[in-house]
Structure formats: structure tokens, C-alpha cells
Amino acid sequence: MEFRSNNLLVTGGAGFIGSNFIKYILDKYKNLKLYNLDLLTYAGDLNNTKQFSANSRYKFIKGDINDKNLIEDIFSDYNIDGIINFAAETHVDNSITNPEIFIKTNINGVFNLLNFANKFWMNKPFKPKKKYAHSRFHQVSTDEVYGSIYTGSFSENSLYRPNSPYSASKASADHIVRSFNKTYGLNSTISICSNNFGLNQNKEKLIPKILYNIKNDISTKIYGDGKNIREWIHVTDHCKAIEQIFNNSKAGEVYNVGSENELSNIELAKLCYKIFDKKQNIEFIKDRAGHDFRYRLNSSKIYRLFGWKAEQSIHDFLKTFR
Ligand code: NAD
Prior knowledge:
It contains 10 helices and 14 strands. It is α/β, with parallel strands linked by helices.
């Protein structure tokens, strides 16, 4: 089986999902060389890449997706024929205190990558260079772009109503990706995924935080009344969905990627304490500004077209830390 690209540029591959994706793809496909461009912000960690850093088909490049000279050099030096963009500022709380970097990375950075993909792959609008006819830009997006929903679920046709600077920056990027497909005919796809759990996640995120607190007998702080609901998916299931979309989708398509496994924040915290057989030590704190109540995706499109479905359970994952 062959991967769609021979020289794939993965951005943000020292972070949580990107590092899991690179491991999965390098293990499975032998036809591709993979270039991991990561700025190594506080969220990037080369320890996440240890499992594959010695692979002869892998190369790490430290740098910014906003750096025009660097991106141009990467395209021409390595003959890049595919991009999967994971690079982003990702923590909603940080986007409330310091939104500017979210605009720079999540919007301008994506625009910069798209510009060079367009320059290197296209002769003119809707006319790809022969050698790059298969080339594709994939944007990794989030369910937060749709905003909050009390009942029911979001389909790929739902309106974008982002509520935080993080989700607004991701929503903007999705629109720019779409515009490059509609205006220039650039071959692009977008996946919109729910909350991920799995190995390599930064300690600022909810599940690693709860596990750390339990281990160190520190109270877990939960926003508001803890009733906010998220749909939890294992990172490997997310990676498999991106693999399917990148390899097999038509150009210009968008896919929701969810697990149907909903938990409120308080249910999740209680579940962790139960699995570790520890007395609950939970503190409710002032709610986050603009806190979305519930996200829920309708993922029937990816089920129908690719037979993909999330498989891994959050209980099983949490149990491995006991
Ligand atoms: P993460 O914060 O763990 O990793 C982000 C990576 O991007 C880090 O390695 C960081 O160093 C790198 N980076 C940041 N700015 C950069 C820049 N300017 N240039 C190059 N590299 C840069 O994030 P994650 O949780 O792995 O998320 C990856 C992608 O998936 C993001 O686009 C995010 O919006 C999306 N997503 C995440 C989730 C989730 O639950 N974690 C859910 C849906 C979508």
C-alpha cells in the first residue's frame, strides 16, 4: 500500500497529535519521506519524536510555518508533494490571555503554507503541474469552529460560530483553505475533529492535568459547574481518519471526525478518580470566559465514504496509567 505523497511535509509534528501521526504513518508506509517542521514552542517536545527520529526516511526541521524563506527552501530542497498541517497554538486559555500569537500562527502561518503550495504545485488556477497533480494540502481543524450546541450535532454544512480567539483563528484558517481550493483549484481537504486523548499530550490539557493531580494528591480545578460536554476520541483514531481523507478523498472536501463518546468535564474527572481508586478531590472554579457548553459532531460522512469509525475507549486508555 502506498501513501499519497512521496515527500510529505508534516508541520507541528513535535506536538501531541502530529507526533502520533508521524509514528503511525512511518510504521505503515515505506514509500514516503517525511519532513517534520516544528518551531518547538512550549508545546513542542522532541521527546515525542524519539520513537522515530532515527528513521532514515524522517527529517526534523526546526522553524516557523510563517517563515517565507524557510518554507520556500523546504519545498524546493525536498520536492514536497503533500502537506498535513498540525502546527498551531492550541490552548484555549492561552488564547484568552494572549490572542495575538493565535492569529499569527493559526491564520497567517496557514496562509503562508498555502501560498507556497500554490506556487510550487500549480501552473495557473485549476491547472496543477503534471508532476504535482496528486499533491494535497490537508488542514487539521477542530470541532470548536462550529461553536456550542445544546442538543443534536453539527454536520459539515453547519455554520461556523466560533466563540474563543483559538476557535476563531482555526475557523479563519479553514475559510482560507477553502478559498484556495475554490479560487485557485488547490487540492485541499479539511478534517474537523473532537477532543483527543492519548500519549504525548501537553500537561496543560484536561486529562494529563487530572492524572497529574491524582498522582500528586493535588485538587483538580474544574471550570463552572463541570457540566460542559466534550466528545472524546483516541488520537490514533484521529490519525487513521486523516490517513483515509488524505489518501482517498476528493479535493475540496471537509469531514467531521468524532467518536460519539460524550462526557461532561465532571464525569471525566470522576471517572479518572474511580479508575485510580482515589477519593475525589475536585474544586469548582470561576467559569472560563466564553466557555462553550457542548460540542458534538455528526460524523456520518466519513463513516459512509471510508468505513472509518473510532475504535478505542477512553476507559481502556485511562486504565493503562494505573
Ligand atoms: P499541540 O499544542 O500539542 O502541538 C502543536 C505543535 O505545533 C507543537 O509541537 C508546536 O511546537 C508547533 N507549533 C506551534 N506554532 C508553530 C509555528 N509557528 N511553526 C511551526 N510549528 C509550530 O497541539 P495538538 O493538540 O497536537 O493539535 C494539533 C492540531 O490539531 C492543531 O491544529 C489543533 O488545532 C488540532 N486539533 C487538536 C485537538 C485536540 O484535542 N488536541 C482536537 C481537534 C483538532
